[in-house]
Structure formats: structure tokens, C-alpha cells
Amino acid sequence: MEETISLQDIFKIIKKRLVHIVSITIIAALIAGVISFFLLTPIYQASTQILVNKESTDQQAIQTQDIQANLQLINTYNVIIKSPAILSKVIDTLDLNLTPTELTNKITVASQDNSQVVNVSVQDENPAIAVEIANTTAEVFQKEIRELMNVDNVNILSPAVLSENPSPVKPNKMLNVAIGVVIGLMLGLGLAFLLEYLDTSIKSEQDVEDILGLPIIGIVSPIPDDQPVTTSNLSRRGRGN
């Protein structure tokens, strides 16, 4: 016979295992907090903006094909910025103990739709190094693009600046704690229902009816410890019940 569980049964299980559920949730939140506040290394981010201009050959209004050409050019520049041809020079300039591939993982290049502004963001454990890498990457790209593509249409719009009290972008401590609470709550609920499912002991008359499929026609009353057990007592109890 297929077992079903009602909403009332669910609340009973939760109430019965509430201590376990709350304990597991608190433990998970504490673990997430300790990892976020004490074990994970803070990561800082610095960003610089590059303006890309496409030189026009005449003074006529910009046509649709010119805008499309600008966008394609920016996409090309996004790839060139993270290429070894640029990053190798950045590493040599700053004397970084990194490979171009490792430096690529620290840099994010993005541009908004229909915009000629390219954002170069760098993440590093040291905020000062992140600022240096961002600014040096922009400067090296501005210089090298003249030789790579024979153009001079890149200007540094906004260099990265080191603030007095930089705030890390990673980890998001409160978010991690919230995730820990959610995971702990899920684990606690799952464990509560698992323990209830594995518990096959009979606790009530309803359990007897469910297991045997027979109605209850009588029960045995408990006998106080201080009262002697006699045949007459048992018979009177039986007739009384």
C-alpha cells in the first residue's frame, strides 16, 4: 500500500525534529561565516576605461555601417587587450611573477552595447597591484595598437585610482552566510524526514491500524508501580475498559 503524508504530518515532523533542524542550520551558518571571514582571501578590483574612436575620412554624418564598424573594431580590441602580445609587456613592465595565462584570468574586458567605451577590470589580492595592472594594461594597449593595427584611435578615458579604504569585491560574506543558512535548513529538513522514515517503531494506535489494517477494539491501561498486580485488579480493569 502506498504511503501518503499529509500537511499536518509534515508540521508534526518539523515540530518533533525542530531542535535538530535549528542546530544544523546554525552550524552551517557558522561554518560559512568562519570560511568567509577568516579563511577566504579578500579580492580587490580596479577598473580603467578606454575610449575607442574610429577616424572618419570626411565630415559627413556617421552612417549605420560606420557604427557597425565601430562595434566590430571594439570587439577586436577586447580580444587584443587580453592577448599575450599585450599582457607579456605588462608582465615585463611591472615585473610580475605571472604567466600571460594567469594574468588573463585576473582581467575582464567588457563594453556596453552601442558604446565605444571599453572597461578593463582587474582583480587581485592586493588593491595597489590591481590598480597598477589595470593602468599599465591600458597604457601598453594604447601604445601597441598603433603598431599592431596602424591606428591611433585609443584614449584612456578614466584611469584606475587606489582609494584610501578599498573594499574587497570577493568574498560576499553576508551572501555566503545566507547561502549557509539555506543549505543548513535544507539539510536539517532532509535529515528530519529521513530519520522519521527510518523510524519504524510503533508509537500510537493509529500506527497499529496503519500497519495491521485492523481497527482498534481495546487498549491496555497502564498499571501504577505502587499497586500490586492481582487477578481481580486485572479483571476489573478489563471490564472497566
TrEMBL record:
Q: Name one GO molecular function term.
A: protein tyrosine kinase activity
Q: Which InterPro entries does the annotation name? A: Bact_polysacc_biosynth/exp, GNVR, LPS_length_determ_N
What is the protein named?
Answer: Capsular polysaccharide biosynthesis protein
Enumerate the subcellular locations listed in this protein's record, separating them with semicolons. Cell membrane
- UniProt similarity note: Belongs to the CpsC/CapA family.
Q: Which UniProt keywords apply?
A: Cell membrane, Membrane, Transmembrane, Transmembrane helix
Residue ranges spanning the membrane: these are: 21-44, 174-195
Q: How does it sit in the membrane?
A: Multi-pass membrane protein
Where does the Tyrosine-protein kinase G-rich domain lie? 142-194
CC annotations in GO: plasma membrane
Q: What is its main location?
A: membrane
Please, which domain of life does this record's source organism belong to? Bacteria
Natural source organism: Ureibacillus chungkukjangi
